[in-house]
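anyone seen this seq b4? input:
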Amino acid sequence: MHEYFETGGAFADTPLLFFCDHASNEIPADFDNLGLSEQELNSHIALDIGAGEVTRALARAFHTRAAFAKYSRLLIDPNRSMDRDDFIPCVSDGVRIPGNENLKASEREERVDRFFEPYHHCLAREIDAACASFADPLFVSVHSFTPKMLSEPELRPWEMAVLWAFDEPSARKFMAALSQYAPQFQVGDNEPYDARGFNYTVDRHIKPLRKRHLTLEVRQDLISDPAGVARISALLEKAIRDLL
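predicted toks r here
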């Protein structure tokens, strides 16, 4: 049976766990690509471009563990609650998703059981292991955002962003570090998305524990190739070390 999640690395001395909800654009063959073209499946609507690679680079740099969802957010979004329209989106940034239209309740439940809950159960195990290994672990969620939404007229001005809801001190300290190490970058404070509105994975797993966390967003054009991933990962590593 295919597992639509991935874990890697080992806990050493650094109290960190990384995870990436939107690392993959994988869609099993039985879903016929949801009726989408290869170009659409390689775009920002299907995955967070570069986020998985940055997550892996950071886990290697800190000699720690990381967890990844291994399916496209278009099948079912691991960072959305079941009551949201974009949990299984019929339209994403103006692009119609034919394979998600007119789903039966049983088809939705099958996706929850096959993709959504196995990833979250995997992540819960990793979080429990981090809490058992360290008194005060830091949990870091890695995302990326497109420079321009098809549905928006303007380019987004931020190179990076930090999303936060209940752990403002970690977010402020991290943003200050980024300003020191990359003063040329505009860093979004709960931009382009506001975690005080929703950040499902963190809200489900980290908030009840009242543990330190960061949700990072990186503009996709900065991490769309190996050189960019290496450069941005090195910068993020420096800023994260200020929190340890």
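The mean pLDDT is 95. The chain has one domain: 5-25+48-70+105-241. kinda curious what u guys think
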